[in-house]
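User: structure tokens for this one?
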Amino acid sequence: MRMAHPEELHALSPGSPSPRPARRWFLARWQDVVSWALLIAILATGFSLRAVGHNWDDFTHLHPDERFLTDVASRIRASGLFFGEAQALQQLRCQERYPAPDMTALQNLAQRERDALLGRSGVGGYFDADCSYLNPNNIGFGLYVYGQFPLFSIRVLAESMTEVERAQCLETAQNDNDELNCDFEARLSHWEQYNGIHFVGRAMSTMADTLSILLIFLIGAKLFTRWQALLGAALYAFAAFPIQQSHFWTVDAFTSLWVMLTIYTAVNVLDDDAQRPAQFSPLLWWVAAFTVWVVELTQSGTLLGALGRLPGPLGAAAADVPTLGAPTAWPLLVYGVALSLAAIPASWVRPARNPYLLTIGLALGIGVVVLALVLGVISPIGAVAAGLAVVLIALLNAAGLNQWAAPGGTLPWLMAAYCLWVFDALAHASRPSLTTLVIYLMVLAVAALLAGALFRASTRQERVFWLMVLALPVSIWLGLDVLAGAVSWEGALAALLLAGALTWAGAYGYRDYAAFGIAFAAALAGRVNVAPVVGVLLLAVLIR
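Assistant:
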């Protein structure tokens, strides 16, 4: 028999207010169906208005703030350090701290590795502001008044897109000359250049402002009614100024997203949202969808090549299977929809497990994957991986484990994974990789499961058991990733500390406080002039 959680004991103590009923999602009432349909329509319309015409200036860079940010983003981590005459001593100190490698040590290295080592001569890391090429002041910009989080995010996203294209090129390479050509094309990638990186920034502004529409609805639904929330979301979706800002690579839309997240998490804190039993968390579905997408982008050629070397008809068939072309987000949407449809029906019948709804969810998920494969939206490798993920979700549903991550919520883990990925890319000497983001998402997803297990544990022995079963293997796996160079040791250490803090917060009813802390810090890193707004929210949370 499970012992009552401390928060439950508090709720049942004499004189305490009666607990509010648990939130229920996806009810079969017509009001819910209409409101969700309207929300999806508002989000789709708002996104289309923000996504159209990203090359509105035809490469002329007419926006002055965007022009400056584009120049900075295209040169950090790419150009050498540039010091004026007044900083001559600083340049000498950097050369002494990070001397050039001995030429004999470079003879047995590939050209790409030699260039990387020579490029880091005299250049410090993320925490060395005097010698780092991540500091705009060290690459010829004497004044930088914007936040660094949007700048670093754009640079990391641009380099990741380049690395995806390079990985796809290497999968088709037949010899060393082809591999050298792939490296040469990667160095000239337009995503990182002055006439290309602003498109990455504009796309990020579009996605950030679209998510802000969703957050306006969620905040309105918390404070008022769903219909008032829909009205607020619709008014913002069609407002001219946000649509205009979504077409610029500036820090405004990006920072506004984190401010909205700060407001939303603060509302949850003030509403005692974490004190009510959570019943819904799509964290595992979304992590699985993103993982399948990254595998399809970066590993399809490798897997098909291995199958193609097998004897017999299987090898011949694998050699003729096409892979996905240029990087696109449509497969990610397909995988998210497929896994959501596979898991949502089980959310209707908690805690009972209805076999008919479980079968319906499995059929819907597989049907979406097959339809996308027939239409050519996803590759066969992606379809197989997504099908396996749908079956796994169905098995979790059948075992009643699909919502074990619910006590820890969804938002804090996703925000933490993104921030860890950006930090790792800056702390790492090598190029960023989407595989690193997948690693952090998986680590935090396991931590969310651990938070749910600790929430349900009634004895100390059970807590120790779950720590040994989940926390210890993940720590060992993360250490192996550090040794393999997949993540930096700074990022791994930060991941363990952050996962531990979020696990404790999720297990003991403080997940919204943790989410507020992450959003608060990211908003300040986006632009410091939002400090008065988020400062008032911090004061309200502290008073609470």
